[in-house]
Amino acid sequence: MRYSSKILGSRRSALAGGLAIWVVSAAVGPSLADAARNGPPKPDFMSIDDSAGGHAERFDALTVEYLAPFVDDEMLRADVFVTKGEVRSAPTTTLSQEREAVATFQSVQGCLETFVLVIARTLKEKTVPGPWIRTRRLDGLVTQVDVCNDVVTMSGDFSSDDPELRIKDLRSAELEETVTFFDTQGIRQVTFEIDLTWTATGPISQDTKSCSKEMTPDGELVIECSRSRQRPAVATGTILFVGTDFDFAVGGSDEAFLMATDSVTIELP
């Protein structure tokens, strides 16, 4: 068979339990004589082989497209692994895109030492071919210590659904929100206003990819792949405690970063 084939990226990612992933493009451009003898070119597919269990699956081009971003480039291979297993049909594909802006702040005013952790995130999810569902979330905690007397004067965690939050991937983020939490030390409700801006300060510091495969008790094959990237940043702004004599003026975060996590889950009955 004289196909003029083009391998877009035959990639292998060695995983636990002998699992490996290959991504293969379709062979294209057979001669008319070849087509008459051998039929049309094979469609694009992804082959997942569990060498320990002898189990193999084949998927269509759309599934390959969803999984390809999660395969490590350094595992490029020149050869193509082909299986003869039947192509599974009607997969359920769920996509997820989570963006996070995280920062810690510490301030000392007189005897009061205050620590604040802020975790702001946006999430987009969809089950193909449905629409994207978007949510936003804010979480964090506050601890204040009177270092002169070695006494915790304020402690509590906070959360808020749908805060005023904008995250521009791994470049920047803006957060404006008023939150109230229960101070377990002072036995009171504490309200504070957050106005923060994150700005990336360097290149991506972490880039992690992972995949897993499992067979459920009812025979469904579930493949999960994710990629997380992290970039250092600085967060500036203000955290104002309402109704108290303490204002947390933020000159710059002690530690801050922006994170992007993309994932795909494919379920095959």
Structure description:
The protein is mainly beta and about 270 residues long. It has 2 domains: about 5-90, no CATH class; about 95-269. It contains 2 helices and 16 strands. The protein has helices at about 30-40, 60-65; strands at about 5, 20-25, 25-30, 45-50, 55-60, 90-110, 110-125, 135-145, 150-160, 165-170, 170-185, 190-200, 205-215, 220-240, 245-250, 255-269. The strands form 3 sheets. Strands 6, 7, 8, 9, 10, 11, 12, 13, 14, 15 and 16 form an 11-stranded antiparallel β-sheet that branches. Strands 2-4-5 form a 3-stranded antiparallel β-sheet, with helices on one face. Strands 1-3 form a two-stranded antiparallel sheet. The longest helix is centred in the first third of the chain and has 7 residues, at about 30-40. The two termini are about 35 Å apart.
SSE arrangement:
Layout: E1 4-5, E2 19-24, E3 27-28, H1 32-38, E4 45-50, E5 55-58, H2 61-67, E6 92-109, E7 112-127, E8 133-146, E9 151-161, E10 164-168, E11 172-183, E12 188-200, E13 206-215, E14 221-242, E15 247-250, E16 255-268
Antiparallel strand pairs: 1-3, 2-4, 4-5, 6-7, 6-16, 7-8, 8-9, 10-11, 11-12, 12-14, 13-14, 14-15, 14-16
